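Minutes, project check-in
Item: structure for the 170-residue chain
Input as provided by the requester:
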Amino acid sequence: MPATLVAPHLSSVALAGELSGMERAVALYASDMPTGYSLQGATDSNLADWIAQGVARLGRQETRRRASYLAGHRKLWLRDMTTPEIDVRHQARFPSKRRLKVAESMASMSYFWIPVAPAARDLPAVIDGPCPKCDDEGKLWGNWVIDADSEWYEEGYRPCWLCQSEGGAA
């Protein structure tokens, strides 16, 4: 008699716990969550179900990829370093600013009752296009301060602090 393969099924809360905040936001954006949604009590089971629905629609890899681009865009935006090309690709990926804002807000609220697994915190921030700081050279020329008290400076290349930092965009 042949063996029957059974795929393990995670509860929506367990699945959400394996996702970072950006991954949760991307999943919520892709789900059937109403755009004008607001939290329904201290623990809202709808949120975990919508996160699971969004991951099911996009797939785990695509959810992670879009979340990495979202994290990279957010870090560039915070430094006022987004380029028009990066903004166009971000707009194509997330056409509704309002929905993205609600999805990010609800994803952050989900931390209150859905703990995050340590492995979920290792989401790299990826720049969607050439690095606006070094034009994808990966290095920057500069006059680097070695010791300010002794006025020791060195000129030369160093790795780009934006795209070559550990864990993706700084």
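Outcome recorded: Residues 19 and 152 are 45 Å apart (CA to CA).
No further action items on this chain.
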